[in-house]
Amino acid sequence: MSADTGTGRSTRPSVTERLSLALRHRAEGAQRALGSPVRTTRMAVVVGRLLGIAFVICFLTGLYSHLHQDPLPWLSLPTRPVHLYAWNQGIHVVVGSMLVPLLLAKLWTVFPKLFEWPPVRSIPHLLERISVAVLVSTALMMPVTGALNALQWYPWDFSFRRTHFALAWVLIGAMAVHIAVHLPAIAAAWRADGDVSASAQEEEDRDDR
């Protein structure tokens, strides 16, 4: 039986509270099940740096290619050496192919964060999660559509080149927002993990001596 507080109201949790508690327990259980010593903030930062550099290279080489195909009257692009455009396209394709394993590694590292509870803590947190959803969806779409373009297979009705170019700007913008939001935490975690690694290395050196 539920206790009476003297005001006639029951202390039994409401349906919403019970549901929230059950979901929180399930989320915590999922995080424990997905826990791994490899899934660390430092690992996420390391892979994220490589992924960010790869995306920037693809963006710049793609922008160079796009401006060659749709030149601006006031912008003169270099055309020498003669193989410059071919090298640009080769770098774009090779680095774009590297995005797939890097992106999968990044998603695997941060996957348990999908089960954080509560899923939304505030309006800024909601906006941040929306920006992450945009970042992940465009990051997945870019290399997939790029690979299909290399195979010259277009299972869609939209223009690949215009859509790929527009999504590139969306991706770079979402990535900039993501980095800006998490930069203090990333820097703090990087320094902290680096100090721990240095201390562990010093202890190993002392043991060897």
**Which CATH architecture would you pick?**
Up-down Bundle
Class derived from helix and strand content: mainly alpha
Q: What is the helix tally? A: 5
Terminus-to-terminus distance: 67 Å
Low-confidence stretches: 196-209
Number of strands: 0
Computed Rg? 24 Å
Tell me what you see in this structure.
The protein has helices at 15-34, 41-69, 84-110, 123-150, 160-208. By secondary structure, the protein is mainly alpha-helical. The protein has a single domain (38-186), classed as Fumarate Reductase Cytochrome B subunit (Up-down Bundle), CATH 1.20.950. The radius of gyration is 24 Å and the shape is elongated. Residues 196-209 have low confidence and may be disordered.
Summary of the model, kept short:
The protein has five helices and no strands.
